[in-house]
Every structure is written in structure tokens, then in C-alpha cells.
Amino acid sequence: MAQTQGVGKRYLKAFFKGFFVAVPVTVTFLDRVACVARVEGASMQPSLNPGGRHASDVVLLNHWSIRNYDVQRGDIVSLVSPRNPEQKIIKRVIALEGDIIKTIGYKKKYVKVPHGHIWVEGDHHGHSFDSNAFGPVSLGLLHARATHILWPPQRWQKLQPMLPPERKPLQKEQE
Questions:
Q1: Which of 47, 91, 112, 128 is catalytic?
Q2: Which of 108, 116, 163, 173 gives the lowest tally of CB atoms within 10 Å of its CB?
Q3: Are 33 and 67 in contact (CB under 8 A)?
């Protein structure tokens, strides 16, 4: 009986030791490297959620790839909403700092994206709350880059940077 208690204590001790190592490692990984998120809404159709309200895509968000704010035109990124800091939004990067962009319904017809900012838009114009509503977005609001669609299984794919031809900047900053 005493030997059984010793084995139980040993297993319990091993479990807690593993638990207290695994939890901080997992939290750090999810915070700094990558996480999974469900995409809601129609703003990124047809790239994400092409089935509308009936199906939501689940994407892999790579935090590590944007740690130095290294984004390019066409990337799909997750960012903190400039209007509601409690909410994260997912949009496509249309223009980088220094680019001049023709807007769609913004208060100015043309905007030069300021230093430290990007211009983001949803793929489904008219159904997207994006830079055309709130202007250029600070790079500090970037959360992650969407790199893959993980769910549903029939949509598994790597997300490639793609800029619609009609949304190319009028003038690009020298790269």
C-alpha cells in the first residue's frame, strides 16, 4: 500500500512538473510565434469565407513573420481595429509608407501613406470597414500575417500575397 502511494505521488509530481513547463511554453508560442483564428464576416470575400455566413475559414496567423513590421503589398494581415481596440480585423495590405493610393470613398481622393503606416482594405469593397473608412493604419497595430487556410479541409492552402490590379499604388516609394 505504501508503495502504491509512492507511485501515485511520483506521477502527480511528474504531471505538475510537466504542466508548469508546458503552459508557459504554449502561451509564449501562441503569443510570439503563431496562432489559429476564425475569420468572420464578408469583408475578405472571395479570398476568405467564400461561402458567406454558412462557413467560416480558419487561418494560421504568423506573429513571428511581422515582428519587424516586414509586410508587403498584397499580404493578408490581422490588426487591432483603429476604431475599437478590443477587436481584431483581417484585411489586405494595399499600400506601404510613402505610396500614393487612390481611395474608395475616403475623405480625400488620393492619400500618401505616412511613415510608419500602411493602407489596408477588404477584398469585398462596400462590405468592408477598412482604411477607406479610417485612413492609414499605424504599423504598431499589426497583429499577425495570415499565411494558410486550415479549415475547412477542402480549402487548405497557403495564402499568397496578391494585389488586385485596380488597387496598385499610383506611385511607390523606392524599395
A1: 91
A2: 108
A3: no
Q: Strands, DSSP E only, in 10-128?
A: 34-38, 58-62, 76-80, 88-95, 100-102, 110-112, 117-121
The x, y and z cell numbers of residue 73, run together, are: 503589398
Taking residues 82-102, what's their average pLDDT?
A: 94
From residue 110, alpha-carbon distances to 85, 142, 165, 171 in Å are 27, 23, 17, 11
CA angle 63, 68, 71 (to 5 degrees): 75
Q: How far apart are CA 150 and CA 58, in angstroms?
A: 5
Please state the rounded mean pLDDT for residues 65-71: 86
pLDDT at 77: 97
> Is residue 89 predicted with pLDDT exceeding 90?
yes
Q: 57-84 as b/e, with b when 16 or more CB fall inside 10 Å?
A: bebbbbbebbeeeebebbbbbbbbebee
Verify whether residue 43 is a known catalytic residue.
yes
Give the global pTM.
0.81
Locate cell 510537466: which residue?
18
Residue of 43, 47, 128, 131 with catalytic role: 43
